[in-house]
Amino acid sequence: MNTGFDGTGASALRRHAPDVADAIDALVALNPPTTGEPLAALARATCATALSLPPLPVPDTGEFDAATLSDGGRAALEFAEQMSVDVSAIDDPMRSVLFAALADRSAAFVTSVYVADWTPRLRRVLDQLFGAGEDGWSAPAHWNESPTDTWPLVDAFITRVAGLGELDPVTSEVVRLRAARQHNCRICKSLRNRSALAAGADESTFDEIDDHASSAALSDRHKAALALVDAMVWQPGFIDDEVIDAIRVHFSPAQAVELVVTMMRNATNKIAVATGADAANVSDGVEIYEINRDGSMAFGLTDPR
C-alpha cells in the first residue's frame, strides 16, 4: 500500500493541488442571487439530505421559514434534489418550471446546486482517504453574493484540475466515460480522448467500463478507480472501506487527490444535463478531443492510431 495517506482531506488537497483547492474555495463561497428567498443556501441542505452527507456552510441570512417558500422556490429545491439524486431524470417540464421561476438567474442557481451536490462528495472521500480532524474544512471568510454569471468560477476549477497531470490518460478517460454514462451526458458519451487512444485504449477497453467489476481486460487499478466513481455517484455517504483501501493500494496520494478532483470536474456535466445543454457535436460515431494543459479543450481532432 502506498504511504503518505496522512493528515486530513483538507490538508491533502491543499498539499497536492493548492490551485485546485483555491478554486473549490471560491465555488464554496458562492451565494448567488436568485429570488428574495435564500435558495442557494437552502439547496445546500437539500443536497446534503439527499446525499446523507454534511451540508456545506451557508451565510447567515437570518431566520427563514422554509414552509413559506413560494411555488417557484419549492420547484427550485425539487430540481436541486433531483439533480443531486439522478440528474438524468430531469426532463423538459422540470426545466421549464425552474426557468419560469428564476428566469435569467436559473444558470447561477444550477451552478450553486452543482457546488452543493459535489463538494460534499469530494470532501467525504478525501477525508476517508487521508483522515478527518481539526485541520478540516473551514467556512468561507467572505461570501460572493453578487455574480449572476457563475461559470467563470467553474471554468477556473476545470482549468486548474487539467493542469495537475499526475494521472495517466487512460485512467482519466475510463473514469470520465463511466461518469458520463451514469449521468447520461450525451456530449460526454460521444467523446474520446486523443491521448488515451494514443496510449492504447480503444472501444474494446471502453466496452468493459460498465461491467468493470467482472472485466478480465481492465486492470485492478482501473477497477479501483471505477468502483470509486460508482460510489461517489450513487452512494457517497456510504462508501465501503474496501473501495477506499483499493485507491490507497493502486494510487499515490497525489494521484488519489487528482482522481477525486477529476471526478468533481467530470461532474460539471451535470450542469449541462440539468439544463438540457448536453447535445453531442456529432450525430454518428465519436469525436476525438484533447484537454490542453492550460485547461482548454480541442474538439474534432484526428484519431492518433
UniProtKB/TrEMBL annotation:
Pfam families (alphabetical): CMD
Boundaries of every Carboxymuconolactone decarboxylase-like domain copy: 163-230
InterPro entries assigned to the protein according to its UniProt record, in alphabetical order: AhpD-like (IPR029032), CMD-like (IPR003779)
PANTHER family, sorted: 4-CARBOXYMUCONOLACTONE DECARBOXYLASE FAMILY PROTEIN (AFU_ORTHOLOGUE AFUA_6G11590) (PTHR34846), CARBOXYMUCONOLACTONE DECARBOXYLASE-LIKE DOMAIN-CONTAINING PROTEIN (PTHR34846:SF5)
Record-given protein name: Carboxymuconolactone decarboxylase family protein
Originating organism: Rhodococcus olei
